[in-house]
Specification:
InterPro entries: Apaf_helical, Leu-rich_rpt, LRR_dom_sf, NB-ARC, P-loop_NTPase, Plant_NBS-LRR, WH-like_DNA-bd_sf, WHD_DRP. Keywords: ATP-binding, Leucine-rich repeat, Nucleotide-binding, Plant defense, Repeat. This is BnaC08g41330D protein. One of its GO terms (molecular function) is ATP binding. It is built from 27 helices and 25 strands. Helix 23 links the parallel strand 20 and strand 21. The N terminus is likely disordered. The strands form 6 sheets. Strands 13-14-16-18-19-20-21-22-23-24-25 form an 11-stranded parallel sheet. Among the domains are: 132 residues, Butyryl-CoA Dehydrogenase, subunit A, domain 3 (Up-down Bundle); 149 residues, P-loop containing nucleotide triphosphate hydrolases (Rossmann fold, 3-Layer(aba) Sandwich); 66 residues; 86 residues, Orthogonal Bundle (Arc Repressor Mutant, subunit A), CATH 1.10.10; 69 residues, no CATH class. It has 731 residues and is α/β, with parallel strands linked by helices.
């Protein structure tokens, strides 16, 4: 009646099921000692098998071009996990065995003994399973090392064909292992290295591996190893977690029997090949390393004493590159555009980065007016030109950021006060740096000058200043680097009136400035300014450069009254009548009178070369009244007696550092203890004897470009000649 079901189990079935269950659970307890012993034995077997497999893996990976199989790695990782669990279980085994009673048939805490025994039994089964799984015919497989992957680049690199061949030919020499390419930012070093990479990809050259690594600033050993390891087939989570030393060993084990090429792009400091794990290239192993950098110092630290400088393009090649970027269609829109385009290209001064960016910008400019406007902007303030501030200057700024210390950075920015494409006299520049206080004079002027030259050569080696091929006493600054310096000096364009620089632009009056109170430095050198009639309030001004304004005739009386912080003032090569002011540095060439100069109570540096100032008795007395004077350079025209008396004054004798002697009249000069420079190209006999000049090592007899004079000049005696001949220079 109704729905239902019934289950019928015999009494024997129930009893048997319960008995089996009780026996199983009971076995976890009373078989615990035996199971622990079996587990210990099985773990010994497993670890021995693990060691055998691991040894095979290590040996095969050591030979290179082999990488462990994924299933092998999973098996090895499982054993590591199992070992940890086994050790944890073993830590409590003594306690669990002590719980057993009644001849180990029962336990004082049945529940705990049961659970522990169950874990032991389960682990024993897992260990046996891992033992059975650990039979591998192969433990590694072959990995491929890229012989060279072609990188995307234009098929032809305008202007770099010759450079590419030169680098390639040097690299292929058996005795050359490392080649360094250095040059300023944006000059095309990475492009050149890419071409080298692609040539290896095309030609092979018998190299087993070609490895490209972008290093860049702030690169770590770990990052460089990771890039190399990826190309060598190394990797994975386990490899990433290895120490730098272990990763270096792995890289070395792969490369040590290979002929490889390592291309390191954009390095900013020494890359220690040994630490990375890269075998040092030699004639024996035939391997090569090529790197690019902006610093010649880095080349030296990498062991390359003859690096290849990647220079800007010459005028014709620069025009070819610019023309290619602009396009023939745009250039043909108007007959005047090609000539204007050449002027725009000229503003780039052969720098490929600027030629590319500005060329691409001008490709769409099809009116003459737009090209005229481009020239105006690039001439007045290039940072405002499209693409310059976001695509060119930040790239160049990396070189500035890498300079060591604020002193060096300040000295670099100061160089931008010189005219575009102008020559910079090294000694004059260092005098400015000292005057500004960038370089401390507390240890003496000689130490300060030496520090200045150290900074200057640091800037040259960083490719921020360029050596002049014709005159070793001068350097130059690439125009685009100069734009970068002015951009930084103006707080990245946010405060354009912080530095007023219109040097060599042909202006006839001082520029209009909205807020003179913010101006720190002014450079109006090499212009056509005639009269300065206003008196601006410049409480922050420290440098004012007005030299070589050949038509300069007048400065208002109050012009210097509101410049309380003025440190450097250069009025050289101007035809002024002289004036009185209180500044710490004064350059006064071509002044006809220095009457009242003794009123310059703070004057420390006085340069009178070619000043047309006659050393009469009145002026001599005024010079002797200057209490703080430390540095004097002077030209002697005649007035021999006055010169002798001036030099005979002990205090003035210590201050006079450089003397230029006019060749028209005979002049007698007595011993000057602090003299470090003497110039007189037609002097027949040097006014020196074997005891003249205390610090002869620092003394210079300058006979620039006149070796004949040095050969015919007379000496007091042989001892004098031997003492001073090393001091002569024809530079």
């Amino acid at each position: 009646m109704g729905g239902g079901f019934s289950v019928s189990l015999s009494c024997d079935q129930v009893v048997n099921q319960v008995f089996r269950c009780l026996c199983l659970k009971g076995s976890y307890v009373h078989n615990l000692p035996q199971n622990l012993a079996s587990l210990e034995k099985a773990m010994g077997t497993l670890t021995a098998k693990r060691d055998d497999v691991q040894g095979r893996v290590d040996r095969e990976e050591f030979t290179g071009h082999r990488r462990r199989l994924a299933q092998v790695q999973v098996w090895l990782t499982s054993i590591l996990t199992m070992e940890n669990q086994y050790n944890e279980l073993l830590n409590t085994s003594d306690v669990e065995l002590q719980r057993l009673c009644l001849c180990r048939l029962c336990s004082k805490n049945v529940k705990k003994s049961y659970l522990y025994g169950k874990r032991v039994t389960g682990m024993l089964e897992e260990v046996k399973s891992l033992i059975s799984q650990g039979v591998f015919i192969e433990v590694t497989d072959a990995t491929s090392i890229a012989e060279g992957e072609e990188l995307p680049i234009q098929p032809t690199i305008v202007g770099q064909e010759t450079m590419l061949e030169m680098v390639w030919n040097r690299l292929m020499k058996d005795e050359v292992g490392i080649v360094g390419l250095y040059g300023m930012g944006g000059v095309g070093k990475t492009t050149l290295l890419t071409q080298i990479n692609n040539r290896f990809s095309e030609r092979g050259g018998g190299f087993d591996a070609v490895i490209w690594v972008v290093v860049s600033q702030n690169a770590t050993v770990h990052k460089i190893q990771g890039s190399i390891g990826e190309k060598l087939g190394l990797g994975g989570k386990e490899w990433e977690e290895k120490s730098e030393m272990k990763r270096g060993q792995d890289i070395h084990n792969v490369l040590r029997k290979k002929k490889f090429v390592l291309l390191l792009d954009d390095i900013w400091e020494k890359v220690n090949l040994s630490t990375i794990g890269v075998p040092y290239p030699s004639k024996v192993n035939g391997s090569k390393v090529v790197f690019t950098t902006r610093s010649r110092d880095v080349c030296g630290r990498m062991g390359v004493d003859d690096p290849i400088e990647v220079c800007c393009l010459d005028t014709d090649k620069a025009w070819d590159l610019f023309k290619k970027k602009v396009g023939e269609h745009t250039l043909g829109r108007h007959p005047d555009i090609p000539e204007l385009a050449r002027k725009v290209a000229g503003k780039c001064r052969g720098l490929p980065l600027a030629l590319n960016v500005i060329g691409e910008t001008m490709a769409s400019k099809r009116s003459v007016q737009e090209w005229h406007r481009a020239i105006q902007v690039l001439t007045s303030y290039a940072a405002e030109f499209s693409g310059v501030e976001d695509k060119i200057l930040p790239i160049l700024k990396y070189s500035y950021d890498s300079l060591d210390g604020e002193m060096t950075k300040s000295c670099f920015l100061y160089c931008s006060l010189y005219p575009e494409d102008g020559l910079i006299d090294k000694e004059e520049l260092i005098e400015y740096w000292i005057g500004e206080g960038f370089i401390d004079e507390k240890e003496g002027r000689e130490m300060a000058m030496n520090k200045g030259y150290e900074i200057l050569w640091t800037l040259v080696r960083a490719c921020l200043l360029l050596e002049d091929d014709e005159d070793e006493s001068e350097v130059t600054m690439h125009d685009v680097v100069r734009e970068m310096a002015m951009w930084i000096a103006s707080d990245l364009g946010k405060n354009k009136e912080k530095c007023i620089v219109q040097a060599g632009t042909g202006i006839r009056e001082i520029p209009k400035v909205k807020n003179w109170k913010d101006v720190r430095r002014i450079s109006l050198m090499e212009n056509d300014i005639q009269i300065i009639s206003e008196s601006p309030d410049c409480p922050q001004l420290t440098t004012l450069l007005l030299q070589r304004n050949n038509k300069f005739v007048e400065i208002s009386d109050g012009f210097f009254q509101s410049m309380p912080k003025l440190l450097v003032l250069d009025l050289s090569w101007n035809d002024l009548s002289g004036f009185q002011m209180d500044v710490s540095n004064l350059w006064t060439e071509y002044l006809e009178s220095l009457e009242g100069i003794s009123g310059l109570s703070s004057l420390r540096t006085l340069k009178l070369r070619d000043s047309k100032v006659r050393l009469d008795m009145s002026l001599m007395k005024e010079l002797q009244l200057l209490q703080h004077i430390e540095y004097v350079s002077v030209s002697i025209w005649s007035s021999t007696l006055v010169g002798e008396k001036l030099f005979d004054d002990p205090r003035m004798g210590r201050c006079i550092k450089k003397v230029w002697i006019d060749e028209k009249e005979p002049v007698k000069v007595i011993v000057l203890p602090a003299l470090d420079g003497l110039c007189c190209q037609k002097l027949r006999k040097l006014p020196l004897n074997s005891k003249s000049v205390f610090d002869v090592e620092e003394f210079v007899i300058q006979c620039r470009y006149n070796k004949e004079w040095l050969e015919r000049v007379e000496w007091e005696d042989e001892a004098t000649r031997l003492r001073f001949l090393p001091s002569c220079t024809t530079r």
